[in-house]
Structure formats: structure tokens, C-alpha cells
Write a structure and sequence with these properties.
This protein is α/β, with parallel strands linked by helices. 51% of the residues lie in helices and 12% in strands. It has seven helices and five strands; from the N terminus they run βαβαβααβαβαα. It has a five-stranded parallel β-sheet with strand order 3-2-1-4-5, sandwiched between helices.
């Protein structure tokens, strides 16, 4: 089976890639993350993934356009649903690329984080897979999250402190007036 694996960042790719390879699945990584802000953060995550992919011989496809405006236009005035919109944008694009590239299925490393909305990711992935007539490969990668976190720290991999969007950055750092 040949899979296109949407990858949000290097640390989140560690366990899913290991898990899928152990299952005998041929993986191509796909970096498409228009939600990441600022651009310096986007580049740092991309560079970290490029380096790690090279170290583990993971074939990668990088969408080199920084499409922040598309993300912002999608979520403005819909901030309460920003995660749904963000997941939809990324999974729709991954499914389109997977279908066009002749892959058997697609998945996402978003399924590794205990901080993401796991059920929503699965629901969107399956709906998008049906829309493009390509299998969304569901696996709960969360059991490998802690182990991958330790490994990413041991190898000195850049680890971000928020999901990437400007809203999560605000939630992370801004505590409001007391």
C-alpha cells in the first residue's frame, strides 16, 4: 500500500512513520500547513522536517507556497470553528494530492497529538476520502506520542509550543488583563 501522509511537523511524524513502516506501508510525506504563523515558525518547522526526513529516508512532497491568507480568509468570523476549517483545508489538499499522485490512501500526523480534536480529524478525513474516492487511513497514533516526544528531545529536534495558528499562539502566550 502506498500512502500520502500529511505531516504537520517533524516531531509529530516520528511515531506515525515508524508505526506505518512496521505495517509495511510505503509512505510519502506531505507538508502543507497554511495555518502556521508567523512565517519564521513555518520555515523552522519545514526545515526541521526536511532534515529529519533526510535522516530517516522519508520521501517528501513540500507545498512551498505559504498560503496564510487562505487560512485566515477561511477562519475569519468563524474562529469558534477554526480547527474544523483548518483540518478540512489540510485534509482536502492532502486527498487531492494523493488522488492525483496515484496513492492508495492518505492519513495525517495530526492523529498523534493528544491536544488535537481527534474525533473531528477522523470524521473530516473519512468525509474527504469519500469526496475524492480515496481511502482515509485511520489510526490512533496517540499511544506513541510520549515516546516520540522523548526521542525528539534526545535528537535535538525543534519542538514548537503551539499548533501553529495565530489563535493558538495567542492562547498560549496571552493571559489577559488581571
Amino acid at each position: 500500500m502506498k500512502m500520502l501522509l500529511h505531516i504537520c511537523c517533524g516531531p509529530c511524524s516520528i511515531y506515525p512513520v515508524q508505526y506505518l513502516r512496521e505495517k509495511g506501508i510505503s509512505i510519502y510525506g506531505y507538508f502543507y500547513n497554511p495555518n502556521i504563523h508567523p512565517y519564521t515558525e513555518y520555515n523552522r518547522r519545514k526545515e526541521t522536517l526536511e532534515k529529519y526526513a533526510g535522516e530517516i529516508s522519508l520521501n517528501m512532497i513540500f507545498d512551498n507556497e505559504y498560503r496564510l491568507e487562505e487560512f485566515l480568509q477561511g477562519v475569519v468570523y468563524r474562529e469558534a470553528n477554526r480547527c474544523l476549517i483548518c483540518y478540512s483545508m489540510r485534509l482536502n489538499q492532502a486527498a487531492r494530492v494523493a488522488k492525483k499522485g496515484g496513492f492508495d490512501c492518505f492519513s495525517t500526523t495530526l492523529l498523534v497529538s493528544p491536544y488535537q480534536k481527534h474525533g473531528l480529524i477522523r470524521e473530516i478525513g473519512e468525509a474527504v476520502g469519500n469526496k475524492y474516492d480515496i481511502l482515509f487511513y485511520y489510526a490512533d497514533f496517540r499511544p506513541g506520542y510520549r515516546e516520540a516526544t522523548v526521542l525528539s528531545k534526545e535528537i535535538g529536534m525543534y519542538r514548537q509550543q503551539y499548533c501553529g495558528c495565530i489563535y493558538s499562539e495567542k492562547e498560549r502566550y496571552y493571559r489577559g488583563e488581571k
